[in-house]
Amino acid sequence: MPDPIRLIVGLGNPGPEYETTRHNAGFWLVDHVADDLHASFATEKAFFGLAAKARFKGETVHLLKPATFMNRSGMSVAAVARFYKIPVEQILVAHDELDLLPGQAKIKQGGSHAGHNGLKDIQSALGSPMFWRLRLGIGHPRSLGLAQPVIDFVLHPPRREDQPRIDDALNRSRAVLPLLLEGEFDDAMQRLHSEK
């Protein structure tokens, strides 16, 4: 059985002006997880971000929101992984995903960063693509019939009709997280991927 997740990273951009933007979907998820695990974030300069420690079935779980801006996320993730000696296979990165529609969420290990600057930087800083990803669908401007450039799209809040779908995907992701913390990846994927 794969080793359970010990570090959950949410990707986003720091600052109130980005809080509600699509690119911050990873932050939204990790905030929910912190609530679920009764953990609170504190600024950790050594980790270039906001970090929290939680307990799950007697084991320590680390939560992280890099404060480096998206394209430098790797610096923060690598600092925590090195300090706590967390292998790359025990890291889960939650991020916004253009290739999935709002309301969809998928878990996978490894693979390409598909042009996502946060994933690209983490892959480079960890020296491996083999961390787990929780891909939170935000849709693509083309698939949603919008003429907006991608960079503009991800830095804006979801449309009114898309936000409830994204919230639903966040809630379904939260529901399977305990399985990931137990190393039950197949069960988690089956549950998350079979729900629409």
UniProtKB/TrEMBL annotation:
What is the stated purpose of this protein?
Answer: Hydrolyzes ribosome-free peptidyl-tRNAs (with 1 or more amino acids incorporated), which drop off the ribosome during protein synthesis, or as a result of ribosome stalling.
InterPro entries recorded: Pept_tRNA_hydro (IPR001328), Pept_tRNA_hydro_CS (IPR018171), Pept_tRNA_hydro_sf (IPR036416)
- Gene3D superfamilies associated with the record: Peptidyl-tRNA hydrolase (3.40.50.1470)
Q: Has UniProt tagged this entry with the keyword tRNA-binding? A: yes
* Residues forming the catalytic site: H23
Q: Which residue positions hold the site described Discriminates between blocked and unblocked aminoacyl-tRNA?
A: N13
Looking up PANTHER family in the UniProt record yields: PEPTIDYL-TRNA HYDROLASE
Task: Report the domain of life of the source organism.
Answer: Bacteria
Which chain positions carry the site (Stabilizes the basic form of H active site to accept a proton)?
Answer: D96
Report the GO molecular function annotations: hydrolase activity
Q: Relate the assembly described in the record.
A: Monomer.
Give the subcellular location. Answer: Cytoplasm
> What would be the name of the gene that encodes this protein?
pth
Read off the SUPFAM superfamilies from this record.
Answer: Peptidyl-tRNA hydrolase-like
* Organism encoding this protein: Pigmentiphaga soli
Q: Which UniProt keywords apply?
A: Cytoplasm, Hydrolase, RNA-binding, tRNA-binding
Q: What is this protein called?
A: Peptidyl-tRNA hydrolase
Protease as UniProt keyword:
no
* Residues reported in the UniProt entry to bind tRNA: Y18, F69, N71, N117
